[in-house]
Amino acid sequence: MLPVLLVLVLAAVNPCISDDDISVDKPKPTPTPYHDWDYIVYSQRWPITGCSQWKEKSPKNTCNLPQDNSTWVVHGLWPTKTGQKGPLFCPSALHFDPEQLRPVMKEMQDFWPNVEANTKPDSFWKHEWGKHGTCAASLPVLNSVINYFKKGLEWNQQYKISALLAKSKIVPNPQGYNISEIYQAVRSATGKNPIVQCVVDEKKQSLISEIQICFDKTLDLIHCNVTGALPDGEILTDCSRKKDVMYFATVPNNASLELEFDEFFGDHEPSIDTCIENYYLERELLKVYRLIKFLMWFTL
Ligand SMILES: *[C@@H]1O[C@H](CO)[C@@H](O)[C@H](O)[C@H]1NC(C)=O
Ligand SMILES: *[C@@H]1O[C@H](CO)[C@@H](O)[C@H](O)[C@H]1NC(C)=O
Ligand SMILES: *[C@@H]1O[C@H](CO)[C@@H](O)[C@H](O)[C@H]1NC(C)=O
Ligand SMILES: *[C@@H]1O[C@H](CO)[C@@H](O)[C@H](O)[C@H]1NC(C)=O
């Protein structure tokens, strides 16, 4: 009971964690009451971490991993209204049909794969379109299914996360990296402040999970801290600052990621200004979260 209560508290205060988990059947999506937006959060995932999370949920789960073991894959383009999450699930006459992606199917499979392999074919793309693409489509350049996905593929080539990180000598390894190093690597390669997200495993390791960069409506790269300057030395992340963050090359055997961090926090899209506000609180709560995780494990 105590953990449940604490989890609710955590859910109420942490909007920074994106939960775009398509692998779980969710209740009927609730559209946001607003459809307008100010900027796009472009999210890429480290598929190794995604796969670890997925396999942990069930030993039967399988993954689609890119052939090129260095590829960070697209998660999605998320239109965002300043200070809000979303808009999400906008009314739209444009319906997703995988046929529309035929011209780019090979690229979709290589760079925007559904890592969670044993789910309905195309469910990931359909989800991204319904939740985010329908809202993005108000921008002429993203006004169709194919244009939305093509832009995601294009940015994946233009902003290759593994290459950006490698410029600062950050490559997958078993030891991990200080989150500041990872953050600064992306910042110095792009010139803008990104968002870096992690999941926490039951060994209390922080595993790198998503790196997000932000674009304005002219599709120019912007700082993800759209509503205010970042305090000196501050970074936009939910990753551990006390321990090195893991950037594994391969999915560990018997992946032991139990409950992923964002499952705890519910269906939240990033909202960076709130993230900054809640940043200090969050750090404290993260400790509590880890304690809960430990206790839950301990009492099983
Ligand atoms: C974001 O933070 C940086 C400092 O890291 C600052 O230079 C920039 O002006 C901030 N962006 C906005 C829109 O406030
Ligand atoms: C990471 O680097 C920052 C800045 O250099 C430092 O304050 C922090 O203690 C380091 N964290 C770890 C886990 O070493
Ligand atoms: C990725 O694959 C290449 C070529 O097969 C191999 O040399 C390299 O060690 C692999 N890298 C990782 C991180 O597994
Ligand atoms: C993984 O788990 C299985 C079953 O629980 C066990 O038989 C196997 O030895 C484990 N493998 C590793 C590498 O720990």
From TrEMBL:
SUPFAM superfamilies: Ribonuclease Rh-like. One of its GO terms (molecular function) is hydrolase activity. This is Ribonuclease Oy-like Protein. The active site is at H75, E128, H132. It catalyses: an adenylyl-uridine-RNA = a 3'-end 2',3'-cyclophospho-AMP-RNA + a 5'-end dephospho-uridine-RNA; a guanylyl-uridine-RNA = a 3'-end 2',3'-cyclophospho-GMP-RNA + a 5'-end dephospho-uridine-RNA. One of its GO terms (cellular component) is lysosome. It comes from the Eukaryota. GO terms for biological process: RNA catabolic process. CDD domains: RNase_T2_euk. Belongs to the RNase T2 family. Residues 1-18 form the signal peptide. It is found in: Endoplasmic reticulum lumen; Lysosome; Secreted. InterPro entries: Ribonuclease_T2_eukaryotic (IPR033697), RNase_T2-like (IPR001568), RNase_T2-like_sf (IPR036430), RNase_T2_His_AS_1 (IPR018188), RNase_T2_His_AS_2 (IPR033130). Keywords: Disulfide bond, Endonuclease, Endoplasmic reticulum, Glycoprotein, Hydrolase, Lyase, Lysosome, Nuclease, Secreted, Signal.
